[in-house]
């Protein structure tokens, strides 16, 4: 028996009793811990190719100037991997960053305008306030009297 044990030890230099050791994990491009994304959209492999993504990012950016700034927000959301990994998709990155800047500026302006009118009111604008607001328009046009 000692002879058989010495033969198996000389044939198998690895003292691991498991005859089929698991191979070391190989990191591929689709790995979560990968530093660069494979896909420019949040859809992953179900999404668009890089060329189509650039066309859509450009369209969302340009149509945002046609008083549709919500498209800038959609552009930032849909191309989130491009924002996170700026060096992976440099052609798309500029459109997405510009969309983020445009949406931030638009949101800031709209919020400041809305807060100025809702908080300021008569105290801020004085007697001009009655001409600026729309809720008394029905009274001015005589639309509140049903008789």
Automatic annotation (TrEMBL):
Keywords: Membrane, Notch signaling pathway, Transmembrane, Transmembrane helix. The keyword Membrane applies. Coiled coil: none annotated. It comes from the Eukaryota. It comes from Cannabis sativa (Hemp). The chain crosses the membrane at residues 63-83, 95-115. This is Gamma-secretase subunit PEN-2. Residues 27-37 have a biased composition (Polar residues). It is a multi-pass membrane protein. Its main location: membrane. Residues 14-24 have a biased composition (Pro residues). One of its GO terms (biological process) is Notch signaling pathway. Belongs to the PEN-2 family. Residues 1-37 are annotated as: Disordered.
């Amino acid at each position: 028996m000692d002879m058989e044990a010495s033969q198996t030890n000389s044939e198998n230099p690895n003292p691991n009793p498991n005859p089929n050791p698991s191979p070391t994990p190989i990191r591929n491009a689709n790995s979560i811990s990968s530093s660069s994304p494979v896909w420019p959209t949040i859809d992953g492999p179900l999404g668009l190719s890089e060329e189509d993504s650039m066309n859509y990012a450009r369209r969302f950016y340009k149509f945002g100037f046609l008083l549709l700034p919500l498209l800038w927000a959609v552009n930032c959301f849909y191309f989130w991997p491009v924002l996170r990994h700026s060096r992976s998709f440099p052609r798309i990155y500029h459109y997405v960053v510009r969309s983020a800047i445009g949406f931030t500026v638009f949101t800031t302006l709209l919020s400041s305008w809305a807060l100025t009118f809702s908080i300021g009111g008569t105290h801020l604008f004085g007697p001009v306030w009655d001409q600026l607001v729309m809720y008394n328009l029905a009274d001015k046009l005589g639309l509140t009297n049903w008789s």
